[in-house]
Amino acid sequence: MGLVVELKPGERIILGGFVVTVRSDHRAQLHIQGDGPILREGDVLNPESARTPAERLYVAAQLMYLSGDLSTAQGEFFQIARDIIEAAPSMKSYIARAGEHMVAGRMFKALRELKALIHYEDELLAAAERNRDVVSAAPSLETVGGL
Amino acid sequence: MSDITLSNAVRGNLLSLQNTAEMMSRTQERLSSGKKVISALDNPSSYFTAQGLDNRASDISKLLDSVSNGVQVLKAADAGIMGIQKLVDSAKSTARQALQAPNAYTTKASLTSGSKGLSATDLTGIIAGTGVNASSGTGTTAIAPMTNVASTSPTSGAGNVVAIGADTAATKLYNSMGSTGAGVVGATALNALAPLGGTNFADGDTLSINGQTLTFKTSGASGANEININDTVTNLAGKLQGLLRDATNGSGTTSTVSFDDTTHKLTVTASDNTKDITIGGSAVAKAGLVAETLKPTNTSAIPSSGSMTFQVGTNQATTVYFGTGTGQISNRRDLLTQLNTVSGLSATVDPGNGGQILLKNANASDYKSSIVLTASTGGTLTGFGALTADSGSTTVKTYAPTNLLSQNTALKGQSLTIGVGTNSKTFTFGSATGQISTYEELTDAVSQAGGILTRDAGNKLSIRTADANVAQPLTISGNAASTLGINAGQFAGTGQSLAGKSLNVTIGTGADQKVSNIVFGTAAGQVKTLDDLNTKLAGDGVGVQASLDNDGKLSLTASNDAARKTFSINGTAAVQAFGAASAFTAVQSSAPSFGGAGDTQRRNLVKDFNDLLGQMDKLAQDSSYNGVNLLNGDDLSLVFNENGTSKLNIKGVSFDSKSLGVDTLTADGSDFLDSGSINNVLNKLDTASNTLRSQSSKFGSNLSIVQTRQDFSKNLINVLQTGSANLTLADLNEEGANYSALSTRSQISTSALALSAQAGQQVLQLLR
Description:
Chain A is 46% helix and 14% strand. Chain A contains 4 helices and 5 strands; from the N terminus they run βββββαααα. Chain B has 15 helices and 32 strands. By secondary structure, chain B is of the alpha+beta class. Chain B is elongated and about 195 Å long. Residues 6-17, 33-42, 147-161 and 385-399 of chain B have low confidence and may be disordered. The interface between A and B is large, with 73 and 68 residues.
């Protein structure tokens, strides 16, 4: 049981209410057991740097995870989710899966899903950029990643 | 299309999310015009994805139902707890009323010691009646036997014994009737006596004999108290005799009054030597009688005149006069009576041995007082004169003191010191004033020192402490001690006390039982005074109070708070003072008794209390929803996802009154009889309140978790359902454009996320 993580020298990880930094100059392997939020530095999204809707959705979910309470930022979460789905219904499946994980208490997997959503969002926005530059209004179907 | 692409104007306008919706509906209008439609045939994967989402939404919906159910169960349990809490408060109020009700007891449990003489300031002192005096033990040298001559058995001719034979019955031959009595015979009529110079018996004359009166009548005399004046002399004698013999005046049934024809005289004789005969009446001279009292006589031993003085020790002296006059002694009977009035003297007669009179000190243990007899000239009693006299003294002593100096000449000049406790007295032996020469003086001296001098059957001496000083040690020293054969040294009494003894007091039973282990003494933790005892009992939580009565008996009584309880004691002090058979045998207190208005009131409150418990039990049983009752031991398991890997288990409890620790009160009402018991009940109710409160808090936090998930699930379903229709309608380029607009707008609009103080932010600060 539990989780095994391998950290690089200098890497940080959130374990519960603590931030743990690898001070040694070699990699550290940790076996983590028990209950509480575990978030590697690379998976943390700074709320102040969240710009896009999907990023903000991720930040809301991140807060829920770190506080251990689904009611944290719940209002904001669903407001953003609604906006996203209404603007781009193809994102709904990501949100559905993420939401399911959250109801089931699998916050870690929910964040993974929301991270994938951010990637999808990047591609969608990039495609929209490209479309704007094209003078012709002909629609084109571009597959932009897995649904 | 140009409406959908971004423009500066659009960017500038979009500050609220409502604009997004406006755009959305515009886009939809365009789409519904039929420009872009995705159907199941055109894009099957999208279609089924949409269906999948619908399915997910309905699965979560089903879960939501059971979660909602669970919420109701929790709410029912919480409402039940609140109701039970109110009933607990009512029960507390009922118990508090009992605290304020009048007392229900009429007597409380108690125990009193048999031992007396304990003192409140020192319970470890010698207990009255248990002390064994310090003693020098049996001495070694015998002293001469005591010679209180006055107390030895009488022997014939011995110096202290006076032989006085029996008295003779009173009798007298009186004078002649008539002038010379000549011619007067029994047959002579009373009115024909021809007395010389006198008159014959006439009507109204009287003669009295021992208080009975005979009256002379001219005629018609009747009964024993009347006689006709023409009756005969013989009949006169007969009547007088009849009166004399009358049982009512106690003269004796064989007393006689007889007339002799030859002497012409009446003779009066008592029936025995114990009776007097008193003669009187107006006509005594006519009958030749004399008005006088005839007494028994003892002419052989008792002189007819003179006196003797008797004195015992320093008591009042009494003089006895001999003779026949008033107050004088003429017989042994009267002599004995008068001798016994002499202060300190006892006189008895031994009818055998020739009627010997024994004189003794009335106080048989008085070995000091002599009986002194002083005879006046001419008044010696035969026999008294033979009493031993001291040389050089005119008095006759019956008592010879025990002279210690003559027994042991070495004593002269020696001394004896007697110490009792811290007091000490020294005596010197010799014949000078203030010195001791006799046993009697030594007895006095020892007594002054606080001791008692005794001699055993072999006349050996010993000294012990007097009973007033029973607890004191005794010290004997001085060179006279060994001469007298008295053991010298220091001797301790063996009075019994509670010092070092233990008393264990137990009150109550089962979980309520309290014990106080007391040791009497002066060391740390031990009990010396009555206050110490009560402090210890109170400190150990034992509801028993100690007190002493006027006799110094120790009483233990249940306190008012513990009035309904009995208690018992054991231990070596229980053996010593309370009559326990052994240190392990418990002595039980008496049982308390109850009654009166206070008793009735409290029993009614017990009934009210039990009714409330019944209501609590019912409420606990009724707090179910859909058959699940968290207050009756049912558990609740809530599943938050379809495959059951995320769930919350809520454990049920038993909240009937018994499980909350509040037992039904006994029907005899004893739980409310004293404040100690009532406070026990109140404590149990407090514990129950705490249990209820803490469980309510647990259910509350469970409910909060469940409600949060419930809300989340509802919101998620909502979001998924509103969005599902759109997936079949939009295309990705339009999505991209819409989304881009949304994204730009959301960058400008105020982010609630960054502003509100959200939980979980603290740890993020650490990463900065």
